Amino acid sequence: MVNNDNKTSNSGKDGKGGVSRRTFLGAAGTGAVATTFAGCLSGGGEGGFTIGLLGPLGITQGLGSDRSAKLAVEEINEDGGIRDEDVEVVSADTRADPSTAQDEASRLINQENVDVLIGTFSSEVSLNIMDMIAENDVPYIVTGSASPQIIENSVGSDYEANKNIFRSGPINSFFQAEAMGGYADYLSDHHGWNTFAYLADDAAWTDPFTNNLPGELESRGYDVVYEEELSTEIDDFTPVMNTLEDEDPDAVFRFFAHIIGGQMLGEWHQRQLEFGIEGIHVASMTPDFYELSEGAATYETTSQSGAAGTTDITEKTLDFVDRYQSFVEDDEDAPQLPMYMGFNTYDAVYLYREAVEEAGTADYENGLDDIVDAMLGLDYTGTAGHISFYDENGEYPHDVQEERDDDGVISNFPITQWRPEGGLECVYPSQHRTADHIAPNWMN
């Protein structure tokens, strides 16, 4: 559901690909690890079908995406491949660095002769490689970055030059900001919380939140008592927490992808501050985050595609999580859940298979229009929700469409909460809820 969009990303990992205790306690960002995890097969172009997977393979989101793509390919090959051709994955480590990603994307296109590119985590990375990918016409499906600029600056600004570019999930952060307004309504109805504060990474992906969420909340009748973007290098949350205590919100909406909010959560518990911590926290999606935080994650929420496998978003969600966990059972590097990017990547592999089967060709050099038409005609049920794309005349051409319930409320934006016993529950939206949201016990 979210993305990580700063120019650099610094993250340690521990055991199953989670955030390391040293990183959790001391770092304020998510930085790249030098090791590259290569694809399970190499080559491409001479027969067969090759998927190029782009992602930061030194952090859990990238690793989850990589393993999810490989699982999808294994299953597809067992089912006859793509257009009767065997499928392989060639993975490239972007290190969440635009320059590295440019080089790796070029290598995948020009040396590995990939038939489609899938992935990327950082919006700055996605934006930086867009022109080169457009010039080569290779289909590209973004599965991690959420900034609306990815579509606005490409397909939305020059359709013919960029029509090979799609974004399959999560919903972009403009719609995420609206969805958070709906979540605020739930918190108000459930707890009587009507006063909010706003914190965010100072990064591209949070611009729509900064620009729209405070107004969205105020338009719904709520008070916004504090707003701030934080440096991704922040290493002391005490001044921020002191200010929040003075402003006295009922809840803080924070949006952290580069910032690891461990210290913030620790102070929150230790001082028993009288507000909830809600929104998006990418580090908190890591399966072992509760343990690494020594329980300080208790009561915090984060939105994430697939709701971390806590609920049946679709009929495919829980089966996929079970198969993924079996697939990585002996893999010491892989996270034990697909991560939000893994859900989106797995779905992208399958929906692209369906598109080229429908188009009758995977030859994008000669049949790109047929492939694009097939993509736009899809109404695909994936593991993270139902996927259909805005067309050329849509608000965000080739972007995944938001889903809405009968009341017009965005529904494909699940939110999970860490519970006192250490497990996760889906608390929003109502059709996917496995438990009601609980306030910190010191607020009851």
Describe the structure.
With 444 residues, this protein is an alpha/beta fold. The chain has two domains: 21-171 and 320-387, Response regulator (Rossmann fold); 173-311 and 408-443, Rossmann fold. Helix content is 36%, strand content 15%. The protein contains 14 helices and 14 strands. The chain has helices at residues 21-26, 60-78, 98-110, 123-136, 149-152, 159-162, 173-191, 207-219, 238-247, 262-271, 289-292, 317-327, 339-359, 364-376, and strands at residues 49-55, 87-93, 116-119, 140-142, 165-167, 195-201, 223-230, 251-256, 276-281, 301-303, 380-381, 386-387, 415-418, 424-428. A five-stranded parallel β-sheet has the order 2-1-3-4-5, sandwiched between helices. Strands 7-6-8-9 form a four-stranded parallel β-sheet, with helices on one face. Strands 10-13-14 form a three-stranded antiparallel β-sheet, with no helix packed on it. A hairpin with a 5-residue loop joins β13 and β14 (424-428). α3 runs parallel beside α4 (123-136), α7 packs parallel to α8 (207-219) and α13 packs across α14. It is globular, with a radius of gyration of 21 Å. 59% of the residues are buried.
- Element pattern in H and E: HEHEHEHEHHEHEHEHEHEHEHHHEEEE
* Helical fraction: 25-40%
Number of strands: 14
As residue ranges, the low-confidence spans are 1-45
Give the rounded overall mean pLDDT: 90
> Can you name the CATH architecture of the largest domain?
3-Layer(aba) Sandwich
Strand content: 15-25%
Class per helix and strand makeup: alpha/beta
Radius of gyration: 21 Å
Strand order of the largest sheet: 2-1-3-4-5
Q: Assign the CATH topology of the largest domain.
A: Rossmann fold
Total domain count: 2
Distance between the termini: 30 Å
Spell out the CATH superfamily of the largest domain.
Response regulator
